[in-house]
Design brief:
By secondary structure, this protein is an alpha+beta fold. It contains 8 helices and 9 strands. It is elongated and about 55 Å long.
């Protein structure tokens, strides 16, 4: 599953659990309006947008010297080029364009990876991944799903939402501690904004 790692805002939702205790969970959301503005900066380019998309996906940043980093690790142009399927010079030109643009550099000088995805590790950790397909324009989808899980005593360990502006049929995935009960599954499927629920163990 592809994880979007940059241009994010932390949104804290608070709700009551089944025993009346107030709980909160922080979600990571990617702003489609920002991605739209970034695309407009590259509207005259045909290949560079693919490099930018990969940079956002991996949380890459551009330094003042136009070098590319993932966290504190420098990534050479050739490695990025191979991942995208373009010439090394395209990656270099993309980094140069980002550095020269005050708007782009204000974003890509601060981007960073969010950390390790737990989705592929759920079977080893004894967790469950709940993959939700819903209307990406409907507000509060994750909050509603998390509230149901909380009422059934399940603790959300990680929540990731793909950006519908970048990923066709974007999904949200919540990694929860424990196994999903039949009642919880029924309530999740009963949400009007949810089109489908998939469980990964």
């Amino acid at each position: 599953m592809r994880q979007i790692n940059a241009i994010v805002t932390n949104v804290v939702h608070r709700f009551s659990s089944g025993n009346g205790e107030e709980r909160s969970i922080t979600f990571i959301s990617v702003h489609g309006s920002v991605w739209t503005r970034i695309r407009s900066e590259f509207e005259r380019q045909t290949v560079r947008p693919a490099v930018v998309r990969k940079m956002i996906e991996c949380g890459m940043r551009v330094s003042d010297e136009m070098k590319i980093y993932v966290g504190g690790v420098e990534v050479d142009y050739l490695a990025v080029a191979r991942a995208v399927g373009v010439d090394r010079r395209v990656v270099k030109q993309t980094a140069e364009q980002i550095r020269k643009s005050p708007y782009l550099y204000s974003i890509f000088s601060k981007t960073k990876p969010l950390g390790t995805s737990l989705v592929d590790l759920v079977s080893l950790l004894g967790y469950t991944a709940v993959v939700v397909e819903a209307d990406p324009k409907s507000p509060g989808v994750m909050a509603e799903v998390a509230e149901i899980l909380s009422r059934h005593g399940m603790v959300v360990r990680q929540a990731v939402a793909e950006d519908p502006e970048m990923v066709p049929e974007a999904k949200m995935t919540l990694v929860v501690e424990g196994q999903l009960t039949g009642q919880a599954m029924e309530e999740l499927n009963g949400l009007k904004v949810v089109s489908s629920i998939k469980i990964l163990k």
